[in-house]
Amino acid sequence: MSLLSMAERNETVAVKVGAVLDLSGRVGKMGLSCINMSLSEFYHSHSDYNTRLQFSIRDSHGDVVTSAAEALDLIKNEEVEAIMGPITTMEANFVINLGDKAHVPIVTFSATSPSLTSLQSQYFFQIAQNDSAQVKAISAVIQALGWKEVVPIYVDNSYGEGVIPCLTNVLQQAYVRVPYLSAISLSATDEAIKSELYKLMTMQTRVFVVHMSPRFGFHLLTIASQIGMMEQGYVWILTDGMANWFNSLNSSVMESMEGVLGVRPYIPRTKALDDFKARWKRKFLPDNPTLVDTNLNVYGIWAYDATTALAMAVEKVGTANFVNNTSSNVSDLEKFGISQNGEKLREALSNTRFTGLSGEFNVLGGQLQASTFEIINVVGDGERRVGFWTPHKGLARNFDTKRTSMYSTSKDNLGPIMWPGDTTSVPKGWEIPTNGNKLRVGVPVKDGNGFTEFVKVTYDPSTNSTEVTGFCIDVFKAVLEVLPYALPCEFIPFSLPDGEMKGTTIIANRSTYIDFTLPYTESGVTMVVPVKANKKKNAWAFLKPLTWELWVTTACSFVFIAFVVWVLEHRINNSFRGPPSNQIGTSLWFSFSIMVSAHREKVVSNLGRFVVIVWVFVLLILVQSYTASLSSLLTVDQLRPTITDVNQLIKNRMNVGYLKGSFVHGILKDLGFQDKQLKNYTSVEECNEFFTKGSVNGGIAAAFDEVPYVKHFLGTYCSKYAMVEPRFKTGGFGFVFPKGSPLVADISRAILNVTQGDKMRTIENAWFKDISCQEYSTEISSNNSLGLESFWGLFLIAGTASLLALIIFATTFLYQHRHIWFGHDPNTSMWRRIGILVGIFDQRDLNCRTFKKSEMRNKSETSSLHHGSGAIETFPSTQCPPSPSSQTESNSPFHGDQGMFSPDNGDADPYGYAAHSKDTEMTLMQPANNCNMNSQST
C-alpha cells in the first residue's frame, strides 16, 4: 500500500518503512489514519524534502505470532528502514528483538509497558508515555486523600505485570500498603471475574487501582457495578490504558462508572490540535462507519508525531540500499541482513526535536519524556478534570507551567470529586468485611488484682460471659464514639502461658512488629521514693538560697564597687578621705550599706552616681531573689525525698521495685541493678508493704514504674511518697494494631479529640483518686539554690558600667595633667612621674564645687576669728597642732582661691614641683605628730 503518488516517487527518493498494526482494533485503525494524515500534511508543508516515506502496512490481527512473522517479512523481503508498531506489548516483545538484530528502528506509539525497556534495545523507540511514569501521579492522589491500603487489579499478561513492580515500589515509599495483588486472566469468564471480585469484597481494603486493556477493563467494571462494588465506600482508580478511552465510551457504560478516577497524559489544547481533530473526524468516520463513538485520543496524536519524527530523521540521514541476504526463507532468523543506515537513522531519530500535536517532542534513551498527567473524574455520562500532576511539582488544581512551589501531595490541590454512590465525602478506603465479623480487640489479663483500675477482666461462670472494664477500656470506647463511622467490636481476653500480662506501652522494639496509635496517657518511667519531714533545722540554712559561686561573685563585686567609688570620689569628697584605714572602711561600708540603704556618705561625682545607680539595681534583684528563695526553703519544702539519685541506689546496693511483667525490668538491668536488688509487685498495696519493710529488711528503697501507675500509687498514699527524677522517656499508653492497619490513623485522630476535651477528665475522675495533694512533690529536685548562671548578666552590666566609669575618669585625669609627661625634664624617670601623678591624685581637687564651698565657709570663719590672711587652720576641739600635710594643703602656695596654680610659677611649672627643695620634700613626707586625733588630710 503506497501513500504517495507515482509522480512524487519519481521526483523524490522513496524510503521503505513498514507498519505492523492490528487493523481490526480501534487503536490500529486510529493509528493508520493519523499516519496517513501526518505524511500528507508533513510533505505538503515540506515539499523541498528529497525523501519520502513509503509505508508497507501489515495486519497483525492482534496475534503475537502473526505480528512477528509480518515484521520478519518486512525486514527480510521488503528491506524496510524502520517499522511502526506493533500495537500491544506482547506483540512488541518479539519484534523489538528482530529490529535489534537487523539494526532496524522499531517505533511504537501504543505499547507502553515498562517491561519493554528492560530489553535494552538501542533500536526501540517508545513514542508513548511509559506506564511507569503515571504510578507517581497515582501515588500522589492516594497520599492526598489519606488512604493507607491499595489493591491493584491487573490483567495477567506482560502488559499488566509490567507496571506492578513500579506501582508497588512507589506506594511503599509513600507508606501505602499493598495487602493483595489481584491478577485476572485475559481469558477469564464472567463467573471467574465475579469470583475474584467477591473475594475482594470480603477484604477490608476498598481502594482499587485497575490496569487493564480498555475492552477487558471496562467489562470488569461493568460486572463490579452489577454486584454492588460501585456503591458508596469504594474507590476505583484507572490507569491511562483505560482513562484514555473515556471520550469513546457509550453513555450507559459511563453511567455505570460514575465516581471513578482516571489518570492519563495531558495534551495541551492548542488551535493546531483543534483543527487536526476536526480534519481527522471528517476523514475517519467515512473510512470507519462502524466506529461512530470513537474519538481521537492520545494514541492517534502520538502516531501522528511519531510519523513526523521518523520523516524528519530520514531526511537527515538520506537513503541507502538495504544489505540483503541471498536467503529468501522468511523464517530464517539467522541469515537476514543488517541495515546499513540503521545506526545513522537511530541517531537521527534520537536527536529529533520539534513541537508536535502532543507538545514538545523529546526522546531520551528511546523513551518519550514524562509529561503532565491529568486526573479525570467520571460524572454522569461524561468526565470532569479535577487536577493535574507534574513530575517536579506534584498535584495542582490548575495547569501552570510557571508554578514554583515545592512538590505537593495536598488534597487542597484537587478539585471537588464525585465518588461512587453519588457522594462528595472522601471514602475512608476500608470497611469491615461483609462476612459480618466484628473488630476483635485483645485485652490483657492481669495476674492478680493489682492496678485493676486500668484493665479488669471479670468472668461470670453462671452466664459463661466475660466483662471487661477499666480506664483503658473506657478510653477506647470513647474513641470509638468519636469516629465518623460505626465500628462494632468485641473484647477478647488473653494472657501469656506463664500468666504474666503484656501491656500496651509504646516502646521502640515493639513498634517493629506492630503499629501503635498516638498515646492517650502521660509518657515516661519515673522513680517514686518515700518522703520524710525536714524536722532537723540547719544553722546554716541562710546560705542555701545561693550557690557558693554566687556568694563568692557577690562578695568580690562588693569589694570592686567599693574600689571604684573610692577612686571616683577620693579627690572631691571628704567622706572618702582621711587615713588609709578610714578610707578602706568607708568605701567598703558604703558598698555594703547600699544593700539596706544605710549609707550616710554622699556621692558627688556624676561617674560615681552612675556606678551607684547600676549597683543599686543589681542589689535590688539579688536581694529580692535571695528573699524569695530563702522563704521557699524555710516554708514550702517541709518534706524531702529520702533518695534523690538513682546512682545512690546502685552504689549502696539498695533494693528497688517494679510492676510484675513490665518492661521496666529491662531498664533497671541496663542501669546496673543486680537481680537480687529487683523486687516485683502486683498491686499498690504490695508496693506500699515493700516500702514499709525497707531495703534492709527485704523491702525496697525506691520503685520504678510508668507515670500513670505512679500517679495512681501517689493518689492512694498521698503524704508518704513523692515522684522524683530521673524520668526515662517512653511513648505512653497506646492501642495496638497489626502492621499497616488502616485503623491506626483514624483511631489516633479520635484519641486527640478525646484527650483534648472534657471526656478524658471525666474518665480519669471515675477511676482514679484525686492526687492534687501530691502536686507540690511530683517533681522534686535535689538542688534548689540559685546559681551564678541566673545572674551573670547582672554582674556583667555592673562590671561594664564600673570599668567604663574608671576609663572615663582616668582619661580625663591624665589629660588634665598631661604636662607631667610632656612638660618636665626628659631625664625624669617614669616612676618619678607616676609618683607625681599619685601625689596629685591623693590631694584634694579644690576646683571641685564641694571644696570651693567649704573653703569659702572656712575663710569666713577664720576671718571672723583672726582678722588676718596668714592664719593657720586650727581645731577647737583639740590642742594638737595640724599635721604637716594638713598645713601644706591649707597654706601651700600651690593652693588657694585661684586654683592649684601659683601665680609666681608660670605655665612652665604650674604645680611648682620644680621649685621644691629637698628639704621641702622631706617636710611633706614627715609623719604627723602623735596626737590621737586624725588629720583632715592623708
Classify the helix fraction into a percent range: 40-55%
Strand content: 5-15%
Q: Please give the largest β-sheet.
A: 8 strands, mixed
Number of strands: 28
Mean pLDDT: 80
Task: Describe the fold and architecture.
With about 950 residues, the protein is an alpha/beta fold. The chain has an eight-stranded mixed sheet, with helices on both faces. Strands 22, 23, 24, 25, 26 and 27 form a six-stranded mixed sheet that branches. A five-stranded parallel sheet has the order 2-1-3-4-5, sandwiched between helices. Helix 16 runs parallel beside helix 25. It is flat, with a radius of gyration of 49 Å.
Summary tags:
alpha/beta; six-stranded mixed β-sheet; 30 helices; disordered N terminus
Compact summary:
This protein is an alpha/beta fold.
Helices and strands, with pairings:
Blueprint: H1 6-11, E1 13-21, H2 26-45, E2 51-59, H3 64-76, E3 83-84, H4 89-102, E4 106-108, E5 124-126, H5 135-144, E6 151-155, H6 158-173, E7 182-184, H7 190-201, E8 207-211, H8 214-226, E9 235-238, H9 240-243, H10 251-256, E10 261-265, H11 271-287, H12 298-317, H13 342-350, E11 353-356, E12 359-364, E13 367-368, E14 373-379, E15 382-390, E16 394-396, E17 439-444, E18 456-460, E19 465-469, H14 471-482, E20 489-494, H15 508-511, E21 514-516, E22 525-533, H16 548-569, H17 580-593, H18 606-636, E23 639-641, H19 646-651, E24 656-659, H20 664-671, E25 678-681, H21 684-693, E26 702-706, H22 707-716, E27 721-728, E28 736-738, H23 743-755, H24 758-767, H25 792-816, H26 819-822, H27 830-842, H28 849-866, H29 884-891, H30 918-925
Parallel strand pairs: 1-2, 1-3, 3-4, 4-5, 6-7, 6-8, 8-9, 9-10, 17-20, 24-25, 24-26
Antiparallel strand pairs: 10-14, 11-12, 12-13, 14-15, 15-16, 18-19, 21-28, 22-23, 22-26, 22-27
Helix pairs in contact: 2-12, 3-4, 12-13, 14-23, 14-24, 16-17, 16-18, 16-25, 18-25
